[in-house]
Amino acid sequence: MKKGFFVAAMALALMFATDSYAQVIGKDIVTKNEISVSYGTLSNSEWIEVFQDVVTVMFGGETKQKSAVGPVSVEYFNRLTPVVAVGAIGSVASFKDDVFSRDLSGTTTGEAAKTKTGSYTRSYLTFMPAAKFNWLRKEHFGMYSKVAAGISFVNTNMKDVDPAVATEKNKDVAFNFQASLIGIEAGGKLRGFAEFGMGEQGAILLGIRYNF
């Protein structure tokens, strides 16, 4: 699913790569606004899920991931100067796992007997003010760095296999961030881009961006 999204996003960006846009000063380009949509991997929320799985195993359980979506991000930036832009980022990620108990007693093969005890769904809704630094600003190519910090609203629903047991719901708020050390973009008004760094948007994220 992720691979298909990446291919589609980049193909769409390249279709519009011949468009020229905004005000060109020499070989540099100056635009005031931009809106982006991206999909990332190896995000903070994904690492949290891995940690939760390790803790479950330590206490004699096991999890099996049924689905994972995101982080999908939407961001807006307003350029204050040719280099500095400020804006905001919103992202969402969701994970669904089945939970099992493990029992080694009475087995002859050494493999644990697994019994499904329930399932859980956990979602992360994140909002972060952000700053972007456009180091290279050419008509059809750019390079930049980006930093953001904010909060994530974490909702967890835990459901027991016994339908008579009520679903347990937990809500938490946690600090979150994004630090994209290197970003590259190419195209016209509509650009494809890739970023590399760490944080809730992902260590690697690909997307499309519209400048106006």
Structure description:
By secondary structure, the chain is mainly beta. It has one domain (2-45, 74-93, 123-211): Porin, CATH 2.40.160. Helices cover 14% and strands 65% of the residues. It has helices at 2-15, 44-58; strands at residues 23-25, 28-30, 33-41, 61-79, 84-103, 113-137, 141-160, 168-187, 190-199, 204-211. The strands form two sheets. Strands 3-4-5-6-7-8-9-10 form an eight-stranded antiparallel beta barrel. Strands 1-2 form a two-stranded antiparallel sheet. β1 and β2 (28-30) form a beta hairpin. It is elongated, with a radius of gyration of 21 Å. The two termini are 30 Å apart. Residues 1-27 have low confidence and may be disordered.
**Structural class, from helix and strand content?**
mainly beta
Helix content class: 10-25%
Could you give the order of strands across the largest sheet? Answer: 3-4-5-6-7-8-9-10
- Calculate the mean pLDDT score and round it: 82
SSE string:
HEEEHEEEEEEE
Low-pLDDT residue intervals, each spanning 5 or more residues: 1-27
CATH third-tier fold name: Porin
**Biggest β-sheet: count, sense, barrel?**
8 strands, antiparallel, barrel
CATH class: Mainly Beta
Determine the strand fraction and express it as a percent band.
over 45%
Return the domain count: 1
> Looking at the structure, what is the overall shape?
elongated
Q: What's the alpha carbon Rg, rounded to whole Å?
A: 21 Å
**Number of strand elements:** 10
Instruction: Report how far the terminal alpha carbons are from each other.
Output: 30 Å
Count of discrete alpha- or pi-helical segments spanning 4 or more residues: 2
CATH hierarchy: architecture: Beta Barrel
